[in-house]
């Protein structure tokens, strides 16, 4: 059986999360423009709604397509870094947004704060997590562990919560691991059967 390779899985997951899907969200024809702007007088946009989006501009005279990132926008004008041609009336444009699988800014209606998830992904393959998952099937060991954790918690409360709970829990897991290892190393002792010879005297009794 081929052993799973968690590191490769994490790399594949990171690759998937980094892939982008681009889709068109607005399209139209320019009314006027320049090498750095495109005006569409028929549009009524929210200010900076398209910031960081990509606009594809088609030069009607050459049918060439120019792709550039929008730096800002007003109600009817896009601004972007200079392109090789001047935008004129009739030039077609498409505004494209980039959607990434990892662009999640809310969960259950609650706003989320962005963070580097590389450590979270690593935790999924951490040796300690793997060990916990492997031990789930051992109900007796799990119940014993829970009981000992409860005893430690009770002792901490009685003692006024002094000392480090995390340190005691780490020691607990170390002791448990050592115990499991020790049990596995116990020798299988041979036993010698004991034979007993039992003699019973049977007596007949006659009753009248």
Outline the structure in words.
Among the domains are: 20-100; 127-183, no CATH class. Helix 4 runs antiparallel to helix 5. The chain has helices at 6-18, 118-123, 127-135, 139-158, 165-185; strands spanning 20-29, 32-33, 37-39, 54-59, 64-69, 72-73, 77-79, 92-100, 106-107, 110-111. The protein has 208 residues and is an alpha+beta fold. Strands 1-8-4-5 form a four-stranded antiparallel sheet, with no helix packed on it. The protein has a four-stranded antiparallel sheet with strand order 2-3-7-6, with no helix packed on it. A hairpin with a 2-residue loop joins strand 9 (106-107) and strand 10.
Give a short overview.
By secondary structure, the chain is an alpha+beta fold. Helix content is 33%, strand content 22%.
